[in-house]
DNA sequence: TATTAGCACTCAAATAACACGAGTGCTAAC
DNA sequence: GTTAGCACTCGTGTTATTTGAGTGCTAATA
């Protein structure tokens, strides 16, 4: 059997209608649409064919049709409109993005928030497991019993931790320690440093400070390990409360479990392909089989520095959401690269 | 009418049973209890009196009795048992607490997590709006276009922000800037600094660096403002999914709104009395009228440095929860003060 | 006089019966 | 190839009925 034009039109209508209404679509409903001018009976025949071909399903005999994963896939790839965002929408997004642009290291987090606001879905941002190279390491005094360890990477990211030291120290000790650590590790990637016997190296190069080393090194290692973790920000969880498919506590809980199981979820996100990617239902891992996931990369100078996305029901406004995601990831670049861009008055 | 012994015993039984079962308690159920040996009819009479006195209510004529807020209050103040935690429970808590003890500045956050695990309720931690005094201020180089601002307070808290600078700088510039800023502001409280015209002061004392000042000062101010915010950590939200009173999406959403409306919720928490405080139903603000809130302070050297608590249904195991909270807040002190305490073998 | 057995009464919740209607599939006519 | 017509299906909503846990009241009891 072949997917002729009429079948495609009907399929497209079913998917579009279902995305809007979340209700199974019947033949009579479809026949009332302006763009379809055949009788319900004809539509029924076509729908029956489409079902046989795996594009539609039936919740039960006397219900309308619902799109299958295969139908969503076809819809996204071929059928849906690719409307541009209106200038007003663009303006709104631009404005929202700009509100968070001062906080350099929270750009991604902020963009994810904007994304959830624009799509009314659960959104997230994830930083890649990056092979950061250390620029320098600084131990700074706080009070008698604690110091701050500060690690600056070449890409500008900064981590710091407060560390309790077991013994008294002087500022000279700290300066020395900072110098030695920077000398030993600057230019190396974090994961590479972690393969070494850091404690031994500290003791070797700072034999007069073994007491301090023993209390500082574990914190140092912990901080490095933390730097290897991907950061995952989730926003707009409360949007699920408004979606009819989640009008049941179990479902709401499922989504909560997914987005709060950060290790597993970030794994899924990190392992995705680059670019704009849409995965629907069965295309995802089993725990996401009832969802659609859309992600896009955010790049600076061609290098991927983060991934942004939304999680929602398969019944998702794919065209709008992809437009918004694309616009945001493109525009974040501008926020970064072009400062003080000319504003049209 | 008077609250005689039998009334108290019955009331106590109703509250305790309801806390366990979440079901209205009938006279027959009560009469089967070992500690009550009067007939259902007698109990009915007593319950009727208790209802008249405002301690019990009736969902409807043919249902059992449910405790009122007044009953919970009496229960907490007079009726409930104050069982000590078992040595095993103490051991479990101690162990969990210890797992997070390295991360000095996350102690409170971690303790809140332990609290939610032990109580199966939503827990939170909040830091007081503190009048921190600045110890020193440091501007550190990251790359050509950005610096890190680091502010260390006398109490050991550290804040840092990445700031994009509009013009090239040298390390000497930064050192100078750090010195001037530290000289001008160390010893002062954050809120006090914010009352001053910081930009003017930078320009006055660093006339040769006006370009840098103009790009750095806004970030400096923003960081100071952020330091004034209270930090609120919420843990164990997913515990609400298991409670029968939240088997409805609306209710689940209500709790979510409460704990994610950080400004409002932290306001409620910050304004509480010191010490162990239990507020039930109407004793709370209207949006919390269906909940009970328990908080306790965590002190170091007598100074309150944080507040820990749980949010749950009024039907809460008050004795257990208060024991756990008390034990955690007491024990956090130990984690801090006494390092390497003798372990009993 | 306090307690309790007995009993009529109430009402939410569960169950059953039923009508409704949106939808289907099939057949025969156009 | 398309469509009108029709019997059939089945979820949904409505109403009636039953069930049972629980109450309040009264009268008997200790």
Supply the key terms:
alpha+beta; three-stranded antiparallel sheet; 345 residues; 10 strands; elongated; DNA-binding; homodimer; disordered C terminus; five-stranded antiparallel sheet
How are the SSEs placed, and which strands pair?
The structure is a homodimer of 345-residue chains.
Chain A: H1 5-21, H2 27-31, H3 40-52, E1 56-57, E2 66-67, H4 69-79, H5 87-99, H6 107-119, E3 122-126, E4 134-143, E5 146-153, E6 158-164, H7 171-185, H8 190-194, H9 198-205, H10 210-228, E7 232-235, H11 249-260, H12 262-270, E8 277-280, E9 291-300, E10 303-313, H13 318-337
Antiparallel strand pairs in A: 1-2, 3-7, 3-10, 4-5, 5-6, 8-9, 9-10
Helix pairs in contact in A: 1-3, 1-4, 5-13, 6-13, 9-10
The structure holds a DNA duplex (30 and 30 nucleotides).
Query: Helix tally of chain A?
Result: 13
The run of helices and strands of chain A is HHHEEHHHEEEEHHHHEHHEEEH
Q: What is the CA-atom radius of gyration of chain A, in angstroms?
A: 27 Å
N-end to C-end Cα span of chain A: 57 Å
């Amino acid at each position: 059997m072949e997917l002729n034009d009429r079948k495609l039109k009907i399929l497209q209508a079913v998917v579009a209608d279902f995305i809007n209404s979340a209700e199974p679509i019947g033949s009579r409903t479809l026949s009332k649409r302006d763009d379809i001018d055949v009788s319900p009976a004809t539509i029924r025949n076509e729908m029956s064919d489409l079902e046989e071909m795996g594009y539609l399903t039936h919740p039960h005999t006397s219900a309308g049709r619902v799109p299958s994963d295969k139908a969503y896939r076809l819809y996204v790839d071929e059928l849906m409109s690719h409307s541009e965002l209106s200038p007003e929408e663009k303006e709104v997004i631009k404005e929202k993005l700009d509100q968070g642009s001062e906080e350099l290291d929270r750009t991604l987090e902020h963009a994810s928030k904007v994304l959830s606001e624009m799509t009314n879905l659960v959104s997230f941002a994830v930083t890649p497991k990056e092979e950061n190279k250390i620029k320098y390491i600084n131990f700074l005094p706080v009070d008698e019993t604690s110091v701050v360890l500060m690690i600056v990477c070449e890409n500008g990211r900064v981590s710091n931790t407060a560390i309790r030291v077991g013994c008294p120290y002087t500022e000279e000790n700290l300066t020395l320690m900072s110098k030695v650590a920077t000398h030993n590790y600057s230019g190396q990637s974090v994961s590479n440093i972690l393969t070494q016997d850091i404690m031994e190296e500290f003791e070797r190069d700072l034999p007069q400070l073994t007491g301090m080393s023993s209390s500082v090194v574990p914190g140092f290692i912990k901080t490095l390990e933390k730097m290897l973790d991907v950061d995952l920000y989730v926003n707009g969880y409360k949007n699920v409360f408004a979606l009819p498919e989640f009008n049941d506590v179990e479902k709401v809980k499922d989504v909560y479990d997914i987005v709060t199981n950060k290790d597993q979820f970030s794994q899924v996100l990190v392992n995705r392909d680059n670019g704009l990617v849409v995965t629907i239902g069965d295309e995802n891992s089993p725990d996401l089989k009832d969802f659609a996931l859309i992600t896009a990369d955010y790049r600076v100078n061609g290098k991927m520095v983060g991934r942004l996305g939304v999680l929602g029901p398969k019944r998702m406004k794919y065209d709008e959401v992809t437009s918004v995601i694309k616009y945001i990831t493109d525009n974040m670049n501008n926020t970064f690269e072009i400062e003080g861009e000319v504003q049209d008055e």
